[in-house]
């Protein structure tokens, strides 16, 4: 049911958002509360950093596979100006918290149960990630996640980190 509702929502608004999140265009600003609700985060507000923006949900099996990899990248590359921002789309916050108990991470988790950010970024499935360069431009969109994707994604992150 949640998958259907989110899919319909994304399809309904996807055409409106297509112009907002294009390759080599500035990443749309999208401030959301963190999952804890104690602060907020905007993935487009990290000037000078390479941002891996990941849209995820607790029911997403590939998301469970990607989280240990993303956490490792954050740990290894954070000192070089790399930041992982993951925005959860679950309607119920507790479902995301339960997921994180099973798949703990140290990177920033935002919560967007209303789906504002995925509409702006034209997200079509879970997970979908956006690589944002140091100038705040979207340089790559990656849909889904397989363990075999990790090496190529890391190489592209390293390439963006080497750009000044």
TrEMBL record:
Gene3D superfamilies: Glutaredoxin. Keywords: Signal. InterPro entries: Redoxin (IPR013740), Thioredoxin-like_sf (IPR036249), Thioredoxin_domain (IPR013766), Thioredoxin_ResA/DsbE_sf (IPR050553). Residues 1-20 form the signal peptide. It comes from the Bacteria. GO terms for molecular function: oxidoreductase activity. It holds the Pfam family Redoxin. Residues 21-162 form the Thioredoxin domain. SUPFAM superfamilies: Thioredoxin-like (SSF52833). This is Redoxin domain protein. It comes from Allochromatium vinosum (strain ATCC 17899 / DSM 180 / NBRC 103801 / NCIMB 10441 / D).
């Amino acid at each position: 049911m949640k998958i259907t509702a989110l899919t319909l929502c994304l399809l309904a608004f996807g055409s409106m958002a297509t112009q907002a999140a294009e390759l080599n265009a500035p990443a749309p600003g999208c401030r959301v509360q963190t999952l804890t609700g104690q602060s907020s985060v905007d993935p487009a507000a990290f000037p000078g950093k390479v941002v891996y923006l990941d849209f995820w949900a607790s029911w997403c099996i590939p998301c469970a596979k990607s989280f240990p990899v993303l956490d490792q990248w954050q740990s290894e590359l954070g000192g070089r100006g790399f930041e992982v921002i993951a925005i959860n789309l679950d309607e119920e916050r507790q479902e995301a918290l339960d997921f994180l108990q099973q798949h703990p991470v140290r990177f920033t988790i935002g919560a967007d149960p209303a789906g504002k950010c995925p509409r702006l970024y034209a997200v079509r499935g879970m997970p979908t990630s956006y690589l944002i360069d140091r100038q705040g431009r979207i340089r790559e969109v990656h849909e889904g996640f397989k363990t075999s994707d990790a090496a190529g994604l890391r190489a592209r992150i390293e390439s963006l980190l080497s750009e000044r």
